[in-house]
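Priority: medium. Attachment 1 of 2:
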């Protein structure tokens, strides 16, 4: 290599090193952020210190950052500058009318819905024209719906198509499914390219985008971690992970509580079927208050029972715990004891949690253990549900408003 070429390479290497030392507090929209403020950028959460941004990757595995997207969500709601909204697994913040979005770890969750359409048609066997029908759909409270059309007596290989708002999906098996977003009732067109027989159209599910902040499916990721790790998060957002207390607090501060859903499977309960629990209000205080939990609004339709706020036992009947056993508790880890027990609950039960004295549920406990150190979920107020030990958990939030 010639000397000038070598020098040029040195210069390039030096430039790269300088670039890596610290990035300016300017986001991709060209907005400059003041010291002490935070912004989201290229899958990172950045905080400005003296004009330089320190950034932490917060999980952006599938979708690129969308630059310069208008501050409109999929329902057509316009969001003002400075506000944040959630969209298709992204957290978006508006700057001067443009949204900067970062994927933050999301699971599309289909919540089964009672069918609100049931159409049955019998087509004359001699009629070879495509069958077309219109039917109004009710909404799933403004969130996308999953539609499914199944042909009970389809001939093998016959093509079935479903058309919604100009979009068509086809399938050559017995059923075709499509997702769509309905802000209001919309007509649904169902057609066949051949004469066909009897079919039904159902709204199969309301599809919510939930941000998963905790997932356990194997024992591969150790959850017996220290305070720093629970604050910043660990694991991979596409697999088993804990998103991090600071991010959960940012998404669900007390001023803007989230909806919480907990999905679980216990192989010894209902043949390991998925069971769930929801709370209408979930928020965490900030680091200065050790991410204290506020949780309420247990959904009585939940199939897993109330492990977080159930009132039972003498103390709770007397109102001692004010809103449930884990409500109002700070987070504790093996090196940060914020519980009400004389010892350290996190140490004793091998997790990090909003322990009191100590727990009714311990979903960050030791994977595979059927006991209080394990992924226990206890709801003794409900005689129909035994104490559960999960082999699968997802804790997830929907950002509201
Ligand atoms: Ca203690």
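Attachment 2 of 2:
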């Amino acid at each position: 290599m010639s000397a000038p070429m070598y020098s040029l390479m040195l210069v390039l290497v030096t430039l790269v090193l300088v670039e890596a030392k610290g990035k300016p507090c300017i986001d991709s929209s060209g907005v400059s952020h003041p010291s002490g403020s935070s912004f989201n950028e290229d899958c990172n959460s950045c905080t400005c210190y003296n004009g330089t941004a320190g950034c932490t990757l917060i999980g952006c595995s599938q979708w690129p950052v969308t630059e310069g997207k208008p501050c409109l969500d999929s329902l057509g709601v316009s969001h003002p500058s400075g506000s944040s909204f959630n969209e298709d697994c992204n957290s978006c913040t508006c700057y001067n009318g443009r949204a900067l979005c970062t994927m933050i770890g999301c699971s599309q969750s289909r919540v089964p819905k009672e069918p609100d359409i049931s159409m049955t048609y019998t087509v004359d066997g001699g009629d070879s024209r495509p069958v077309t029908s219109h039917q109004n759909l009710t909404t799933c409270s403004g969130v996308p719906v999953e539609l499914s059309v199944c042909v009970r007596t389809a001939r093998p290989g016959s093509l079935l198509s479903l058309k919604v708002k100009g979009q068509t999906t086809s399938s050559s098996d017995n059923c075709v499914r499509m997702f769509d977003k309905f802000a209001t009732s919309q007509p649904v067109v169902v057609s066949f390219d051949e004469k066909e027989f009897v079919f039904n159209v159902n709204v199969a599910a309301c599809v919510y985008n939930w941000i998963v902040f905790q997932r356990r499916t194997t024992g591969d990721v150790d959850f017996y971690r220290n305070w720093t790790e629970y604050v910043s998060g660990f694991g991979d957002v596409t697999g088993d992970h804990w998103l991090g207390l600071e991010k959960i607090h940012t998404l669900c501060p007390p001023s803007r509580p989230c909806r919480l859903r907990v999905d679980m499977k216990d192989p010894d309960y209902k043949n390991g079927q998925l069971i769930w629990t929801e709370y209408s209000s979930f928020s965490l205080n900030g680091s200065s208050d050790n991410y204290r939990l506020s949780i309420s609004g247990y959904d009585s339709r939940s199939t897993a029972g109330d492990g977080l706020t159930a009132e039972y036992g003498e103390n709770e009947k007397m109102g001692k715990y004010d809103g449930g056993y884990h409500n109002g508790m700070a987070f504790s880890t093996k090196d940060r004891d914020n519980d009400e027990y004389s010892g350290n609950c996190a140490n004793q039960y091998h997790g990090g949690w909003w322990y009191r004295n100590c727990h009714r549920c311990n979903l960050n406990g030791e994977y595979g253990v059927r006991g209080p150190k394990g992924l226990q979920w206890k709801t003794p107020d409900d005689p129909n549900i035994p104490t559960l030990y999960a082999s699968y958990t997802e804790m997830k939030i929907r950002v509201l408003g």
